[in-house]
Amino acid sequence: VFHQADFFKLPYAAASFDVALLTDAMYSAIAGRASRHAWLQEVRRVVSPGGMIALSFIPDRYARTFLRRV
Fold first, then answer.
1. By CB neighbour count within 10 A (0-12 exposed, 13-18 middle, 19+ buried), where does 4 fall?
2. 17, 48 contact by CB (below 8 A)
3. Predicted confidence (pLDDT) per residue in 23-36, tens digit
4. How many Cβ atoms from other residues are within 10 Å of residue 52's Cβ?
5. Least confident of 6-10, 18-22, 27-31
6. Which of 21, 31, 67, 70 is most buried (CB neighbours < 10 A)?
7. Of 14, 46, 13, whose CA–CA distance to 22 is shortest?
8. Is the dihedral of CA 53, 59, 63, 69 positive or negative?
9. % residues pLDDT > 90 (the chain)
10. Higher pLDDT, 12 or 22
11. DSSP 3-state assignment of 27?
12. pTM above 0.85?
């Protein structure tokens, strides 16, 4: 099932999920530290107490290296 929604107003009740997996592309789509913090708070809201939020990132230096190789 695919859902499209506002990053900052996820259409799910609090504690709807046990796990949230967030990739580097999602995190990079949100500019600014304050906006990212607000977004992560919203993700935290929909994850159940004791649940897990898994984040993955590509360090900036690897992204630049990859772009040079393409």
1. exposed
2. yes
3. 776 667 788 889 98
4. 11
5. 27-31
6. 21
7. 46
8. negative
9. 39
10. 12
11. helix
12. no
